[in-house]
Design goal:
Mitochondrial carrier, mainly alpha, single chain
Length: 276
C-alpha cells in the first residue's frame, strides 16, 4: 500500500479555508431552515422559507478562517500526539476537540450574528449581517459576540469526538479494502458524509441548546440566566422531546451532504497543494 504524506501547516490552513467556505455557502439555505425550526418563536414567525440567505454575510467573513483554524490545529495535533495504533481513535478525538475550541474562537461571533439575522431577532432594525453585528456591539458589548460560546463547545466536542474517529476509521477500512492510500476525494467524501450525518443526528439536542442560547437577548448582569443543563431540562419539560430534536432532518441532511463536500474538498485541496 502506498504511504500517505503528512500535509504541511500552511497546506492544511489553505485547504481547510477552501473546504469550509464551499460548504457554508453551498448549504446555507438548509442551515437557515434548521435554525428557524429550532427557534423558540417557531418556524413561521422566524421567517419560514422567506429570505433563506439572510445572514450569509457573516459566513463569508468567518467561514474560511474558522475552518482553516480547525484543520491546521487538527493536523498538527494528530501528528504531534504520541497516540497511534490502537490508541488512534483517542488521538483523533483529542485532536478534533482541541481544533474545535480553536475554531470556535473565530466561529462563535459569526454564528451569533448569523443566527440572529436568520431568525429576524432584531426585526427591521437589522436586515443585514453588518447591522446585526452593530446591534450586538451596541447592546451587549464585545462579550455579546461570544454569547453561546460554552454551549457551542458543548455541542462541537461531542460532535467531533464522534465524527472524526468514525471518519478516520472509515477511511482506514476503505484504504485497506482498496489497498491504496491516500483515497481519492470522492472516496473521502463518502466517508465524511456517513460520519457527519451520524454525528449530526446524535448531537441535535445540543445544537438546539446552542441556538436557543444565542437567540436569548436577556442581560446576564441584570437577571439570572439558567445554566445549560437547566435550559435543556426546561425545553424538555415545556415543549417535549420533539423540541430537543427540532431540525434534526435538515441538520442531518445538511451535515451529511456538507461532510461529503467539506472533507472531500479538504482532501482534494490538501493533496493538490502537496503536489505543487
Amino acid at each position: 500500500m502506498a504511504t500517505e504524506r503528512k500535509p504541511a501547516f500552511f497546506q492544511s490552513l489553505a485547504a481547510g479555508g477552501l473546504a469550509g467556505t464551499a460548504v457554508d455557502l453551498l448549504f446555507f439555505p438548509i442551515d437557515t431552515v434548521k435554525t428557524r425550526l429550532q427557534s423558540s418563536q417557531g418556524f413561521a414567525k422566524a421567517g419560514g422559507f422567506r429570505g433563506i440567505y439572510k445572514g450569509v454575510g457573516s459566513v463569508v467573513v468567518g467561514s474560511a478562517p474558522g475552518a482553516a483554524a480547525f484543520f491546521s490545529t487538527y493536523e498538527s495535533m494528530k501528528h504531534a500526539l504520541p497516540l497511534h495504533g490502537q490508541l488512534a481513535p483517542v488521538n483523533h478525538m483529542v485532536s478534533a476537540s482541541v481544533a474545535e475550541v480553536a475554531a470556535c474562537l473565530i466561529r462563535v461571533p459569526t454564528e451569533v450574528i448569523k443566527t440572529r439575522t436568520q431568525t429576524s431577532t432584531y426585526g427591521p432594525l437589522a436586515s443585514s449581517s453588518f447591522s446585526a453585528a452593530r446591534l450586538v456591539l451596541q447592546n451587549e458589548g464585545w462579550r455579546g459576540f461570544y454569547r453561546g460560546f460554552l454551549s457551542t463547545i458543548m455541542r462541537e466536542i461531542p460532535f467531533t469526538s464522534l465524527q472524526f474517529p468514525l471518519y478516520e476509521l472509515l477511511k482506514l477500512r476503505l484504504s485497506h479494502y482498496l489497498d491504496r492510500k491516500p483515497l481519492y476525494a470522492h472516496e473521502a467524501a463518502a466517508c465524511g458524509s456517513i460520519a457527519g450525518g451520524t454525528a449530526a443526528a446524535l448531537t441535535t439536542p445540543l445544537d438546539v441548546l446552542k441556538t436557543r442560547v444565542m437567540l436569548d437577548l436577556r442581560d446576564p448582569s441584570k437577571q439570572q440566566i439558567p445554566s445549560l443543563p437547566s435550559r435543556l431540562r426546561q425545553i424538555y419539560v415545556a415543549e417535549g422531546m420533539g423540541a430537543l430534536f427540532a431540525g434534526v432532518v435538515p441538520r442531518t441532511l445538511w451535515i451529511s451532504a456538507g461532510g461529503a463536500v467539506f472533507l472531500g474538498a479538504y482532501e482534494w485541496a490538501v493533496h493538490g497543494l502537496m503536489g505543487l
